[in-house]
Amino acid sequence: MIALIDYGAGNLTSVRKALTAVGAPFFTPAAPADLAGASGVIIPGVGHFGATRAITEDWRAAILASVKRQTPLLGICLGLQYLFEGSDEAPDLSGLGILAGRCTLLPPRVKVPHVGWNSLSTRRRSVLLEGIRDATQVYFTHSYAAPITKAAVATTEHGVRFASAVEGNGVFGVQFHPEKSSEAGLRVLRSFVHITTSAHP
Fold first, then answer.
1. Selected catalytic residue, list 89, 103, 142, 179
2. Which residue from 2, 31, 152, 173 could staple onto 75, CB 3.0 to 4.6 Å apart?
3. H or E element in which residue 65 lies
4. Which residues are registered as beta bridge partners of 157?
5. Structural domains present in the chain
6. Cβ neighbours around 77 below 10 Å, total
7. 10 Å Cβ neighbour count for 7?
8. Are the C-beta atoms of 19 and 26 separated by less than 8 Å?
9. Helices 12-21 and 182-199, axial angle in degrees (round to 10)
10. Is 103 a catalytic residue?
11. Quick check: is 77 catalytic?
12. What band does 184 get if pLDDT is binned at 50, 70 and 90?
């Protein structure tokens, strides 16, 4: 069963609906120890990086321990940014540091926040994006974005090119909102569910 972490960052209800739509078994853990038996972990979120302050040290430790156990982890929007070392949006806060680099503000020459549909440019084969064609449109809402590193499996351009999907060693993240991205988004969630069942048959 997938653990959907609730730290008050906004889009939990819509993610729950999307997981239900794809037939995914999930629960909202009440305590960090509840992650021990999860087949996968999802960190959702929308809004300011400062919202991650609610993920206390015991939760951080439990999330990192689950990654060490090779439990698949998916970060959505703010959840993706939290996989990195940090964000200029809240310089005093650390991300999980699973992925190298920091998130930065999108350039002021374009409309910020970046809200609406935009295309994915796939970079290499991705388990998470299996069946998602290059240039597929998905839904974004964010002002800060992750750097393009070797973990990036897809990029998107809005004033600057940024990592819109990352993947590596059982850790996954999408800057877009799969729960608001129609069939393409549901396909991404189905892929993550398949990943969790493969990791924990």
1. 179
2. 173
3. helix 57-68
4. 161
5. 2-199 (3.40.50.880)
6. 27
7. 19
8. yes
9. 80
10. no
11. yes
12. very high
